[in-house]
Amino acid sequence: MSLIDTHAHLNDPKFASDIDEVVARANAAGVDWIIVCGYDVESSRAAVELAARFECVYATVGVHPHDAKTYHAGVEGAIEQLSRASKVLAIGEIGLDFHYDFSSRPDQLAAFEAQADMAAKLGLPIVVHSRESNDEALEVMQSRAGNIKGCVFHCFSGDADFARAVLDMGFYIGIDGPVTYPADKSGRGLSARQAACGDGLPVSDAGPAPGQAQRAGVCALCCRGGGADKGRHIRRACGGDLGKRKNAVLECGGLLIPPGIFDPSRNL
């Protein structure tokens, strides 16, 4: 079994002052691989640089929906060039965020579709961010499902029907910090709990998305207290069944993820 954090933001400036110690503590805690996800050109370049610097670090590159308004041909070219680095595993995180709407919805959709098409062309998986935009995000992915190598709907916040639609395409659901928050009336916690015990893919989202107990601080791969505590929250939410599935890969904090689309060992 290997411990993998499939979605970390060690490219966040919060980690700049002690990145060597952060990675060392992650390794000491049993995290063998860390996938650092980009969210704009600068952070994607930083993810690639961290992957070159640390043997255990791999990268994804892409433009987050918050920054979709900045997406143009030059940005697309930069992301595609970065994606060809030897340790880039996926395009992401990309998608739609209709909660904040920091970029207009047409701009978000255009950037999402362009990057999804880029991933299909390059034969790379996708990391999708979808918030209050599940129908639209699902439509984009369903229309391309046959051409996409693999996909994770990161930081899942949909209902059980949406989860099933994602899983039916052969994609995965990222179980992240929100599953540790108090359950709301939408049933999000229930659907995430169901997914995590089936085809869910828990992640630390180190940096921006702490678990309930660390919402005012930094969550970092069991390195600053956040990852391990989040793992305990998610294990409780899943009824203690994590670790019992066959042919699984373990993640930070003892979390369970399915094997396959993000497997750094295949690139060694």
Question: Any chance you could write out the topology, listing elements then pairs?
Answer:
Blueprint: E1 3-8, H1 19-28, E2 33-37, H2 41-53, E3 57-61, H3 73-83, E4 88-97, H4 105-122, E5 126-131, H5 134-142, E6 151-154, H6 160-168, E7 172-175, H7 188-196, E8 200-202, H8 226-237, E9 249-251, E10 255-257
Parallel strand pairs: 1-2, 1-9, 2-3, 3-4, 4-5, 5-6, 6-7, 7-8
Antiparallel strand pairs: 9-10
Helix pairs in contact: 2-3
Structural class of the secondary structure composition? alpha/beta
Distance between the termini: 17 Å
Q: Strand order within the widest sheet?
A: 8-7-6-5-4-3-2-1-9-10
Count of distinct structural domains? 1
Kindly provide the name of the CATH class.
Answer: Alpha Beta
Instruction: Find the count of extended strands (DSSP E, 2+ residues).
Output: 10
Q: Helix content range of the residues, please?
A: 25-40%
Taking the sheet with the most strands, its summary is: 10 strands, mixed
Short characterization:
The chain is α/β, with parallel strands linked by helices and 268 residues long.
Structure commentary:
- With 268 residues, this protein is α/β, with parallel strands linked by helices.
- The chain has a single domain (3-267), classed as Metal-dependent hydrolases (TIM Barrel, Alpha-Beta Barrel).
- Helices cover 34% and strands 18% of the residues.
- It is built from eight helices and ten strands.
- Strands 8-7-6-5-4-3-2-1-9-10 form a ten-stranded mixed sheet.
- Residues 184-202 and 209-268 have low confidence and may be disordered.
